[in-house]
Each structure stands twice: as structure tokens, then as C-alpha cells.
């Protein structure tokens, strides 16, 4: 099966005077699992539809390998597509659905049945081949949609929120199967989601899209640990922002606690420090430390989540995991918050961009 590199060069889509995609450039490698992640309305589906050929591109170019495909119609791009609403034919059996794209390509006889069977086996739906879609669960229908997309041996697989109609547990199982199958087939895959956990778990690389532009591009771990700006820090995972003043490589946080952080020594000015719930240790209240009061605690199995009102500061979330969970903590307890200096990120308060050194 051939797989393609997908290059997007300044892709722009305008509706009236609104830019749904604003000069987006991305270089997606052959065989890569690439995710477009962003909040509702940020332009991810519009971009995917331009790659598919369903939406004409207003400005910019899209290439599959070195071939520009702007004017190639959707049905000639050899792409597989999976949508959130499955889009399988209700009047055809599972096998009929899977064979559909092959028949459209004039594939017949043994090759037709062999290829359909191979795709159904891969998606573990071969035992359901004679059922109608109405006799299938949501997860099974989505497997049919996937089998139908990969059976044609597409050069590029495009998926738009394929798991969003499934329940939470099934989403996790399905995303693992999608990832395994994608690696097995080595098809360049472009996946759209607004679910950051799904994106982190499934992707080789992620582009964070906001207001029609790319905010950050990188591997999941890089995006989580080194967000380029406050939007990304807030959108990926949970972050709370604390005011600080930076000078000589040291940040004084909330006027209380000085920490030496990985920023330029020359940088001087107001900053925001982002803190994730797992980057804080709680202790007994202590002079010279950031302090607060527990306003809520929620037991979540392997960890306890606290909401803490910081003195002269914002509300912050803190997680305490099983090994260090102090089950005697209760509402209104006073605590100190020790921030893990190697983990927190610092942003310029005005531009909201990171000032962390690499
Ligand atoms: N045909 C259209 N005419 C006018 N505006 C449109 C059209 N299609 C999309 N838009 C607008 O473009 C923006 C981007 O839409 P798009 O569907 O790409 O967002 P999205 O990031 O995929 O969001 P969601 O996760 O909600 O599907 C939205 O503000 C949307 O209202």
C-alpha cells in the first residue's frame, strides 16, 4: 500500500469576510498519524474538507507527495474518510458496505471478497458480515466505517471526530485499535478532534488550531510540557495561571515565593506562571510559601483532586496521587503549595507567549 506525504502551503478558506482557515501551512510525513486539535469552530473540519477536496481552497496549495492536488476532484484523490456519524449505508449489509468502494473501482470476483474479508477481519467485524447497520452497536458501526475506508487502500486516511458518538470507555478501546491499525497499514492519517486526551494518546504529532491558525505544532509530550503560549497551556490539560515578576532568571510568584526558573536572566517584567494539578506538592502551611484553603475535594480513584483558594490569588486545582494522598485533608484546611520548578512554564504577561529556554 502506498502512503503519501501531505504538504499544505498557506491554505486559506474565507466565508464572506470570515477566515475559517488563515494561511495554514503543515508538512505531514508519509505514514504519520497527524492530528488537528482545537476548540469548536477553529477551522479543523474546514481544513480537512479542503484536503479531501470537498471544499475548494481559496488561497494556497495542497500537495500529495510532490503533486499539487488543488484541482483534482475528491473522488480522484484516493482518500479514505471516516466521519463522526459513521455514514454507512443503512440498506446494505456490513459486507455490502465494505465492498462498496471496491465495486466502484470495478474490482470483482475473488479479489473483491478477499479484500473485503481482510478489512473486516482487521476491524474484527467479519462475524457480523451479514448484519444490517441497524443491528449493530455504535462501536461496531464505526468499525464498518473504518473497514470501508481502508479497504480501498487509500493513500491518505482522513478522520473527522470518528469517536465522538461513542461512550467514554468504547472511545478509549477504539482509539487504541485505530492507532494499531494505522501503524500496521502505515497510511498517512489526518485526524480531527476537539478532545485533547484523545489527541495526546493517538498522535505522532499534533497541530493546535485556533481561530483558523496553527498555534503550535509538535509531538504530544512536547506540546503538553512546553506549550508555546497560554492558549495552548490552557487548552491541553488543565493549567492555572499565577501572576509573577521576573528578574535575573528568578520569578517572584504572587509576591510571595521566589523560584529560579529556566528563563533568560536578562528578561525583566510581568509574567504568568502556568501550573498543572500534578505539578504541586501540598504541605502544612508555612511562612514564605504560597498558601491557600481547600474549598473542594473530589476522590477520583487513583488520585484526589483538590480545589484550593490561594491567598490573594486564584483558585487552583491540585492532584494528590495514591502514594502521597493524605486522606485526612478536609474542606477549609489550610495548606502550603510547593510548585515543582522543573515543570512549570512561564509566559510574558502581555504577549502570552512562552519565555522558557529550550
Ligand atoms: N459553509 C459555511 N459558511 C459559513 N461559515 C462556515 C461554513 N462552514 C464553516 N463555517 C464557519 O467556519 C468556522 C470553522 O468551521 P469548522 O467546521 O471548520 O470548525 P471546527 O473546528 O471543525 O469545529 P467543530 O469541532 O465544531 O466541528 C466556524 O466558525 C463555522 O461557523
Automatic annotation (TrEMBL):
Q: Which GO terms describe its cellular component?
A: ATP-binding cassette (ABC) transporter complex, substrate-binding subunit-containing
- Positions of the ABC transporter domain: 6-236
SMART domains linked to this entry: AAA (SM00382)
Kindly give the SUPFAM superfamilies that the UniProt entry links to this protein.
Answer: MOP-like, P-loop containing nucleoside triphosphate hydrolases
Q: List, in alphabetical order, the Gene Ontology terms for molecular function in this entry.
A: ABC-type transporter activity; ATP binding; ATP hydrolysis activity
Q: Does the keyword Transport apply?
A: yes
- Alphabetically ordered keywords of this record: ATP-binding, Cell membrane, Membrane, Nucleotide-binding, Translocase, Transport
Which InterPro entries does this UniProt record tie to the protein? AAA+_ATPase, ABC_transporter-like_ATP-bd, ABC_transporter-like_CS, ABC_transpr_MalK/UgpC-like, Mo/tungstate-bd_C_term_dom, NA-bd_OB-fold, P-loop_NTPase, Transp-assoc_OB_typ2
Q: Which Pfam families match?
A: ABC_tran, TOBE_2
Q: What protein name does the entry list?
A: ABC transporter ATP-binding protein
State the species of origin.
Diplocloster agilis
Amino acid at each position: 500500500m502506498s502512503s503519501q506525504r501531505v504538504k499544505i502551503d498557506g491554505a486559506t478558506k474565507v466565508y464572506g469576510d470570515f477566515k475559517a482557515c488563515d494561511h495554514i501551512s503543515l508538512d505531514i510525513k508519509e505514514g504519520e498519524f497527524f492530528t488537528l486539535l482545537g476548540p469548536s469552530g477553529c477551522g479543523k473540519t474546514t481544513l480537512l474538507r479542503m484536503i479531501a477536496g470537498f471544499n475548494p481552497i481559496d488561497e494556497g496549495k495542497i500537495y500529495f507527495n510532490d503533486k499539487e492536488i488543488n484541482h483534482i476532484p475528491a473522488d480522484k484523490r484516493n482518500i479514505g474518510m471516516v466521519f463522526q456519524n459513521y455514514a454507512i449505508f443503512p440498506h446494505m449489509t456490513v459486507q455490502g458496505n465494505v465492498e462498496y468502494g471496491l465495486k466502484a473501482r470495478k474490482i470483482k470476483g475473488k479479489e473483491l471478497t478477499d479484500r473485503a474479508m481482510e478489512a473486516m477481519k482487521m476491524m474484527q467485524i467479519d462475524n457480523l458480515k451479514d448484519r444490517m447497520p441497524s443491528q449493530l452497536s455504535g462501536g461496531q458501526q464505526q468499525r464498518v466505517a473504518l473497514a470501508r475506508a481502508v479497504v480501498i487502500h487509500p493513500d491518505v486516511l482522513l478522520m473527522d471526530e470518528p469517536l465522538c458518538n461513542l461512550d467514554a470507555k468504547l472511545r478509549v478501546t477504539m482509539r487504541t485499535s485505530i492507532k494499531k491499525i494505522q501503524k500496521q497499514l502505515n497510511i498517512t492519517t489526518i485526524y480531527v478532534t476537539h478532545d485533547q486526551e484523545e489527541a495526546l494518546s493517538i498522535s505522532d504529532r499534533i497541530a493546535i488550531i485556533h481561530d483558523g491558525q496553527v498555534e503550535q505544532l509538535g509531538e504530544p509530550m512536547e506540546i503538553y510540557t512546553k506549550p508555546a503560549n497560554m492558549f495552548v497551556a490552557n487548552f491541553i490539560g488543565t493549567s492555572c495561571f499565577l501572576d509573577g515578576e521576573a528578574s535575573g532568571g528568578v520569578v517572584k510568584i504572587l509576591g510571595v515565593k521566589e523560584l529560579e526558573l529556566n528563563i533568560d536572566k536578562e528578561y525583566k517584567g510581568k509574567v504568568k506562571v502556568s501550573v498543572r494539578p500534578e505539578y504541586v506538592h501540598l504541605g502544612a502551611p508555612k511562612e514564605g510559601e504560597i498558601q491557600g484553603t481547600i474549598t473542594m475535594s473530589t476522590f477520583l480513584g487513583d488520585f484526589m483532586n483538590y480545589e484550593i483558594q490561594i491567598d490573594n490569588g486564584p483558585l487552583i486545582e491540585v492532584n494528590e496521587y495514591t502514594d502521597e494522598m493524605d486522606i485526612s485533608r478536609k474542606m477549609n484546611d489550610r495548606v502550603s503549595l510547593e510548585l515543582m520548578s522543573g515543570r512549570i512554564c512561564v509566559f510574558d504577561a502581555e504577549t502570552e507567549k512562552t519565555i522558557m529556554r529550550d
